[in-house]
From TrEMBL:
Name by which UniProt lists this protein: Endoribonuclease YicC-like C-terminal domain-containing protein
InterPro entries per the UniProt record, alphabetical: YicC-like_C, YicC/YloC-like
Record-annotated Endoribonuclease YicC-like C-terminal domain positions: 2-62
PANTHER family: UPF0701 PROTEIN YICC (PTHR30636)
Gene Ontology molecular function, alphabetical: RNA endonuclease activity
Pfam family, one: YicC-like_C
Native organism: marine sediment metagenome
Taxonomic classification: unclassified sequences, metagenomes, ecological metagenomes
Length: 62
C-alpha cells in the first residue's frame, strides 16, 4: 500500500522507496532467521533478490 501511495506522489520518491525496501528487507531477514523450514528459507532468498531489484529501480528514480 505504501508503495502505491509513493508512486502517485508528485515529488521525489526514490529515497522513500529505498527506505521502505530496507525495512522490508529487515523483516524478511527476521523471518529467515526464525525459519526452520527449507521452503521458507528458499522463499526468503527469492524475496531478497526481488527486493534488490526494486532498490536498484528506486535509485534510478532519484
Amino acid at each position: 500500500i505504501q508503495f502505491d501511495d509513493l508512486l502517485n506522489f508528485e515529488e521525489s520518491v526514490g529515497r522513500k522507496m529505498d527506505f521502505l525496501t530496507q525495512e522490508i528487507n529487515r523483516e524478511v531477514n527476521t523471518i529467515g532467521s526464525k525459519a526452520n523450514d527449507i521452503e521458507v528459507t528458499s522463499l526468503v532468498v527469492l524475496v531478497k533478490s526481488e527486493l534488490e531489484k526494486i532498490r536498484e529501480q528506486a535509485r534510478n528514480i532519484e
